């Protein structure tokens, strides 16, 4: 089914039919799959292909001994080449293939610093990405270590993970492209319903202890992973928006583990007041969680609030895949750090100061964490005084999904 996956990625996750330039970032363990992509796109007339082949084990070994100054200048973390290809109008394909627990012995401060360098050394790429002016997609692909971490050390663990990824990406269907078009169309209908509600705030509650209120900006917009007809995450089942960054209040508990740059963070809670994180704790990975929260001035505020039904196809697999790309699409989630330009009217024309003025967070960080549960209830309070339950027992209510059925 690799060929069907490649066809989906090329046709619905890139614009190489318009600008025949492709940038691929991947881990060396999946080189045979990348070779298939290269062969395919060259047949389509694409000759300008840049390959960023990463060796996570070498990166780990380097981080053990690197100083911050060395991180600044290392090609492992300095991503200036991304800006060169962003100028050309390239399509960016980034493959997420995990190496579980690899970074467990690395200083959390060093991981946080390296991540900040990676994001800050490609400012043009990030600017064009935020303004929806380039084609990009993060996609999942398996490797042996990741598969064995999930399914155990068996001969068929790799095939099980590959089949799971292909199922969640609908590659097992006769026409995956049509299936994704249908799903995104349903999400557009949900988005229209939410955008027309004139919501002032959302109240999240569940039995874990989550009791959180987030406020939405004037002229907020919900969006999906469909950006200018390109799917930017594969897979993606979410609809999302950006809350008013400085008004969130209450406490939220994670419902699934968060793996950040190979480090596990789990059984944690975060407390907010006037939008800012004022307290937090975690049974596992507390130091790394702290580094995320303190990356920069605004990484302690929320930038995203996403809705994903509890009975989503990924969640029904009942597996923690250990990568945010997949796990966030199994669960409602929030994100610390940067918000989205497209989640407020005329936001694509705004600079960072204008976004902040309208309530949308700006930061060099953006980290999603999962909060959805089987008993999650979300109540919307509208500016005209209505109280509407949009999520009940983990799923959309009739107030929302009826617009899809009609």
Written account of the structure:
There is one protein chain. The chain has helices at residues 2-13, 31-43, 56-65, 68-73, 80-88, 108-120, 123-130, 144-151, 157-168, 176-195, 286-293, 324-327, 352-357, 398-405, and strands at residues 21-27, 48-54, 91-96, 135-140, 199-205, 211-215, 223-224, 226-227, 230-231, 233-234, 239-241, 249-253, 258-260, 263-273, 276-284, 302-307, 333-337, 366-370, 377-382, 387-392, 395-396. It is of the alpha+beta class. α2 (31-43) links the parallel β1 (21-27) and β2 (48-54). The chain is globular and about 60 Å long. 44% of the residues are buried. The model has no long low-confidence stretch (mean pLDDT 92).
Report the average pLDDT across residues.
Answer: 92
Strand fraction equals 25-35%
N-C termini distance:
35 Å
Tell me about the biggest sheet? 9 strands, antiparallel
Count of strand segments: 21
Uncertain parts: none
The share of residues in helices is 25-40%
Backbone CA Rg? 20 Å
Structural class: alpha+beta
Core attributes:
406 residues; alpha+beta; nine-stranded antiparallel sheet; five-stranded parallel sheet; 21 strands
């Amino acid at each position: 089914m690799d060929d069907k996956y490649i066809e989906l990625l090329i046709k619905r996750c890139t614009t190489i039919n318009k600008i025949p330039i492709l940038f691929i970032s991947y881990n060396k363990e999946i080189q045979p799959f990348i070779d298939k992509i290269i062969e395919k796109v060259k047949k389509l007339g694409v000759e300008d292909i840049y390959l960023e082949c990463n060796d996570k084990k070498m990166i780990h070994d380097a981080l053990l001994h690197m100083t911050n100054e060395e991180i600044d200048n290392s090609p492992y973390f300095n991503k200036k080449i991304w800006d060169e290809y962003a100028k050309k109008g390239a399509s960016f394909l980034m493959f997420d293939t995990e190496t579980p627990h690899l970074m467990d012995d690395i200083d959390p401060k060093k991981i946080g610093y390296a991540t900040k360098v990676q994001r800050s050394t490609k400012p043009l790429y990030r600017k064009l990405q935020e303004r929806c002016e380039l084609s990009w997609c993060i996609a999942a692909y398996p490797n042996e270590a990741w598969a064995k971490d999930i399914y155990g050390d068996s001969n068929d663990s790799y095939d099980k993970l590959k089949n799971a990824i292909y199922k969640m990406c609908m590659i097992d269907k006769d026409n995956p492209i049509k299936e994704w078009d249908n799903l995104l169309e349903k999400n557009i209908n949900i988005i229209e319903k939410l955008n027309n509600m004139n919501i002032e705030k959302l109240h999240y509650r569940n039995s874990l202890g989550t009791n959180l209120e987030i406020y939405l900006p004037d002229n907020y917009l919900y969006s999906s992973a469909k950006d200018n007809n390109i799917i930017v995450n594969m897979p993606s089942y979410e609809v999302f928006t950006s809350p008013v960054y400085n008004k969130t209040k209450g406490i939220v508990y994670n419902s699934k583990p968060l793996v950040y740059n190979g480090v596990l963070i789990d059984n944690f809670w975060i407390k907010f007041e006037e939008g800012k994180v004022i307290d937090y704790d975690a049974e596992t990975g507390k130091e790394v969680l702290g580094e995320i929260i303190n990356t920069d001035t605004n990484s302690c505020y929320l930038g995203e609030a996403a809705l994903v039904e509890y009975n989503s196809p990924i969640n029904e697999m009942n597996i923690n895949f250990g990568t945010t790309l997949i796990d966030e699409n199994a669960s409602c989630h929030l994100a610390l750090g940067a918000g989205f330009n497209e989640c407020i009217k005329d936001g694509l024309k705004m600079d960072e100061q204008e976004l902040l003025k309208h309530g949308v967070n700006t930061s060099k960080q953006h980290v999603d964490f999962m909060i959805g549960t089987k008993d999650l209830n979300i109540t919307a309070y509208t500016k005209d005084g209505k109280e509407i339950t949009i999520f009940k027992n983990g799923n959309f209510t009739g107030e929302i999904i009826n617009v899809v059925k009609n």
